[in-house]
Design brief:
The complex is a heterodimer of chains A (331) and B (330). Chain A is α/β, with parallel strands linked by helices and 331 residues long. Helices cover 32% and strands 21% of the residues of chain A. The two termini of chain B are 28 Å apart. The chains are: A alpha/beta (331), B alpha/beta (330).
């Protein structure tokens, strides 16, 4: 196994809010190999974006470790962060909000190149790399479509020569056809430049298409991690099963009487439920789930934080999906 | 197709926007009908005219400069095109109501939920405040807001996103409208909440005989809820028909391309998606006397450029605006 490009260990981030202390990340482990795509999924408020922001140093972790190419970033100096950030770049959801509306696209790319200590004449090559024409350099963001703006954001992220691109809902605001174009572009860039991608998204079909491994977060904790094909074919954790079962299906056919797979909202992160944080919404929870916090246990392909995983080891035939979560099976 | 028995009959609807550069035509010649208890989906990319069509049913036009450029909208036999503002105001909230994408932008942050939910029934139905609040409480409970009585006294910020959207639906239903216009009602919600809201809309439609016009760019959502679909492109209907048939066998290259560009949860994954090249024409692009989809179409032929194809029925309940043989569309 090659050394990970990025290794996050037991990362903890909390925020002070008017309502109290919020544990946004509560001991998250994550590894990304060179040129690998790892997706982080979960509902709003599960800590996806905080994880992205912590990895580039935009929020300060309380504890834990973030190593990029073996170099520790937590507790590092500004200079160490600045150097690391050249290797790790971020692309956000709303491209128009991430670009300067007054500056021509070419100027914004040249600025990024100069800040990275590179030749500003590389802007044309960056535009070409993301499928834009040289004349786009003279345009301002409002003269471009949403998809073109997102291409500019990706070009700007490439200006520093990163080895890891973090895409935080980077295709969520785009139409189906433009989204397909950008997803294809990400895959091309990955192949050409050997980029690793940390893909944060809520659209599970997009995640399945793009990523090799998937990490499922819930209230700041990893509940499941597995290779994408294993996770989508046979999700282990009841939360993952619920998420997958919630996705609307093209085959539903109009009058579908399918029932929602999970009740209620994500609980407040200020006072998370005791025990397994998912137990109040879990279709297969039992007494132990509200009393103890399950550990992240190994599964055949990954890890899952569920007591049923230990039970399954003892009695391999006892499938979780037979116990009421069967609706989660992909239809 | 006759207008008999339909709750809503839209005929040849065109909407114009008078702008500095001339008149824009976001919607041109759109026709459809909707019966009680039925759900029709409007799909297409941003800027195809979905929302403008939907809002026109409420008598709401783009501002500034929006106007009805032609056609007719008959709701329960009453003509909305050309109706006065007072009449539209009587219908809005009473016979036709709307739910939008962002519930926090649609609720008034300064008023309690009770005040907002009671307003419609007091105004339209002449209920007393006490009666209206009792009705509001029952409705909030019906849409799945726990502890509805106490929730009437809180402000929107105290609710979660899912609860706010439930409250919006309760408000829309407060005067028992015949038609609900739902414009991307679950787009801002997590997939788990989306499933809950779709289930709620299905249940309400069944128990109240509510007609629903759903605007969505998400074909999965449309598949879950809609009996029939209208696929819009550049302000024109390019395909219409029953949802399962269109999704299984699209008959217009645009619909087919949208479906191909969609990553799937099942089946084999290809390394690349079949992305539809280019973008829809801008609103300010001059309308060509040709198929509007021709510049992006894989099946384009001479006939497509010699005039815009008409919307033609080709099978029971199905129509399409395309001259390529239907077997070639996939």
């Amino acid at each position: 196994m090659t050394a990970p490009l990025l290794a996050v260990r037991d990362l903890r981030v909390s925020f002070r809010t008017a309502a109290g202390r919020v544990r946004a990340l509560d001991g998250v482990d994550l590894e990304i190999g060179p040129a690998e795509t790892v997706a982080v999924v979960g509902e709003s408020g599960c800590g996806k974006s905080t994880l992205a922001r912590a990895i580039v140093g935009l929020v300060r972790p309380e504890a834990g470790s973030i190593r990029h190419r073996g170099r520790e970033l937590v507790g590092g100096t500004r200079e160490a962060w600045r150097a690391a950030r050249r290797g790790i770049q971020l692309v956000f959801q709303d491209p128009t909000a991430s670009l300067d509306p007054r500056l021509r696209v070419g100027v914004q790319l040249e600025e990024a190149l100069r800040l990275a200590g590179r030749d500003a004449r590389g802007a044309a090559a960056l535009l070409d790399a993301v499928g834009l024409a040289p004349e786009h350099a003279g345009r301002r963001p409002h003269e471009l479509s949403g998809g073109q703006c997102q291409r500019v954001c990706i070009a700007r992220a490439l200006a520093t020569g990163p080895d890891l691109l973090i895409c935080d809902e980077a295709v969520s605001a785009l139409d189906v056809s433009v989204r397909a174009q950008i997803l294809n572009l990400l895959r091309d860039l990955q192949e050409r430049l050997g980029l690793a991608i940390l893909f944060i998204g809520h659209d599970l079909a997009v995640v399945r298409h793009l990523s090799r491994r998937v990490v499922v977060l819930y209230l700041g904790r990893v509940l499941e991690e597995a290779p994408a094909d294993a996770l989508f074919a046979a999700p282990r954790h009841p939360y993952t099963q619920s998420l997958l079962a919630s996705v609307p299906r093209l085959a539903a056919g109009g009058g579908g009487g399918r029932r929602a797979a999970v009740r209620g909202d994500v609980p407040s992160a200020v006072s998370p439920p005791p025990g397994c944080a998912f137990h109040p919404r879990c279709p297969v929870a039992f007494a132990r789930c509200s009393g103890e916090t399950p550990a992240l246990l190994p599964t055949p392909h990954g890890r899952s934080r569920c007591f049923l995983e230990a039970a399954r080891d003892a009695q391999p035939s006892g499938g979780l999906r037979g116990q009421g979560a069967g609706s989660a099976a992909p239809t | 197709m006759t207008g008999d028995g339909a709750l809503l009959a839209v005929r040849d609807l065109s909407v114009g926007i008078d702008g500095p550069g001339g008149v824009l035509r976001p919607v041109e010649g759109v026709s459809f009908e909707l019966c009680a208890g039925e759900t029709l989906g409007l799909v297409g990319e941003s800027g195809c005219g979905k929302t403008v069509t939907a809002l026109a049913l409420l008598g709401l036009l783009p501002r500034p400069g929006g106007f009805f450029a032609g056609g007719s909208i008959r709701l329960e036999g009453r003509e909305l095109v050309g109706a006065g503002e007072a009449e539209l105001a009587r219908l809005r909230g009473r016979r036709v109501a709307a739910v939008f994408q962002d519930p926090s932008a649609s609720l008034n942050p300064y008023l309690t939920l009770g005040e907002q939910l009671a307003e419609g029934p007091m105004h339209h139905l002449g209920l007393s405040r006490r009666e209206a609040l009792a009705r509001a409480e029952a409705l909030l409970a019906r849409v799945g807001v726990a502890d509805a009585g106490a929730r009437l006294r809180v402000h929107p910020h105290a609710l979660s996103g899912g609860q706010r959207q439930r409250a919006m639906i309760a408000m829309a239903l407060a005067c028992e409208p015949a038609l609900l216009v739902a414009d991307e009602p679950t787009t801002a919600l997590d997939v788990t909440l989306q499933a809950q809201i779709l289930e709620l809309l299905r249940a309400l439609r069944a128990e109240r005989g509510l007609a629903v016009l759903l605007v969505s760019h998400d074909l999965g959502v449309v598949a879950e809820l809609c009996d029939r679909l209208l696929v819009l492109y550049a302000g024109r209907v390019v395909e219409s028909g029953p949802t399962p048939e269109i999704l299984a066998r699209p008959a217009h290259p645009y619909t087919a391309a949208l479906l191909r560009a969609l990553p799937r949860l099942e089946g084999p994954t290809a390394p690349r998606l079949e992305a539809l090249p280019g973008l829809p024409p801008g609103l300010d692009a001059p309308a060509p006397d040709a198929c509007r989809f021709a510049p992006r179409c894989a099946l384009v032929r001479d006939a497509c450029l010699r005039g815009e194809p008409p919307l033609v029925p080709f099978a029971p309940r199905r129509a399409r605006r395309c001259v390529a043989p239907v077997e070639e569309v996939r």
